[in-house]
Amino acid sequence: MANKRPEFQVYNSMTKQKEIFKPIVEGKVGMYVCGVTSYDLSHIGHARAYVAFDVLYRYLRYLGYEVVYVRNFTDVDDKCLLPTQQPRVTDHMEQIKDMIAQIISNGCGYAVDGDVYFSVDNFPKYGLLSGRKLEDNRAGERVAVDDRKRNPADFALWKAAKPGEPVWDSPWGPGRPGWHIECSAMSAHYLTHTFDIHGGGMDLIFPHHENEIAQSCAACSESRINYWIHNGFVTANDEKMSKSLGNFFTIREVTKLYHPLALRHFLLGTHYRSPVNYSTSQIEISSEAVFYIYQTLQDCEEAVYSLKEESATNAKVRISPAAQECITKLHNEFEAKLADDLHTPSILNAALQEALRFINSSINTLKKKQQKQQQLSTVKSLVDLEKQVREVLDVLGLLSSLSCTEVLQQLKDKALRRAGLTEAEIFHAIEERTRARKNKEFSRSDQIRSDLAAKGIALMDVGKETVWRPCVPVQQEQPSVPAQQEKPGVPGEQQNPPRPAEKPQSVVPADKQQ
């Protein structure tokens, strides 16, 4: 635990390499992240940006920085920390018009029939971020060809009014701002022209962020952003998820069936710069992983409850060497992996899993007969390890403000919705299975259990009681049926709600199996 904290290295899209992070002002960080336009609901691709930069925000605060985090308005009700500022374009029209006027005054903008364009020919550094040359730019890409432009690559700073669009007065006539100028003006307003981090999805590198750099530098020659950070795409069937392709799932659609923490866990399971392919199988696995985390934390709370205070006040009680080793390893791995360009998958899949297994093993040890001093040592070990686990989960944004019981119930409610069942129906199935076992109808008993497992409901026999928990749906082998033969439906059977992808195979954490 006394090891020197590793230096934070982050990949800079501008320099195309990882760099040691050094803020402009010691102890303070200014960060601007492009959100989404509010004309439509956010999809999972947007969620990835929210989560990636939320983890960066949390980690910078964990490192002790005072962070001013600005993210333009988004409609999503997610589990991210609120940014310091969430500006709306409509509240910053004066700043936008002032910046456009300055760009024109500095010779990099021109007005045509109520429109204002940025002149890329007058900004020699254009293409610095994306690496694209002006001759590579194709007229008509994302915007319509306009022969009034001096160069086909020139882009709009202000757009003349059109019927049905919102309108504001300006020195160039009524209209509205171009897409790119909005972020330049708002970031400069809240963070000045020089700040530490600008982020967003990789699809924003060109043209949005390239144009932002041109605008900001044309308006103020001292404009500088030290680190450009971009997250990778979310794909569906290996195609980029986007509204234009119609292959996207909104955050609200997904979180109707899955807990927001499951979506976050899924997104953190891949390094933020790598592409991640969305599938129900993967989010099912993440949902089960989150349930496992919170079940372990709840079991730990219950196991230490009666002896927690005594273990804390008894000066002779020490945690076990094995527990100390586990705590130290989790702490060191957590800091090392986040310091290495926010490598969250390594934390989720290695050190954290090892710590959770150790907690469950210690809980089982506590259930056995021990001397009092050994009991207190085990309890103190559990308390200290749980604290370290919670710290890791907090920085990753996986620690809810709700109790473990409440989160587990929410996860169960989502599982019931996916299965198209009520809890009363599950209890009825448990009773039916119990009767079948008493009557030695074991094939019937097994079938009930298998049918529920196929719907993502696991039955577990704990002593004389049977309980249920969510699980990854288990695909059952189906007998071959002639193509022309249709399987009859069951009258009155509740149909499963549609899911936004294919149904997965099952994996259940080994130490939670009964």
Automatic annotation (TrEMBL):
The EC code for this enzyme is 6.1.1.16
- Listed NCBIfam families: cysS
What residues does the tRNA synthetases class I catalytic domain cover? 81-285
Q: What is this protein called?
A: cysteine--tRNA ligase
Q: Does the keyword Protein biosynthesis apply?
A: yes
List the Pfam families hit by this protein, alphabetically: CysS_C, tRNA-synt_1e
What are the Cysteinyl-tRNA ligase anticodon binding domain coordinates in residue numbering?
431-469
Cofactor dependence is on:
Zn(2+)
InterPro entries, per database record: Cys-tRNA-ligase, Cys-tRNA/MSH_ligase, CysS_C, Rossmann-like_a/b/a_fold, tRNA-synt_1_cat_dom, tRNAsynth_Ia_anticodon-bd
The UniProt record lists the keyword Transport:
no
User: Annotated region Disordered: where?
Assistant: 470-514
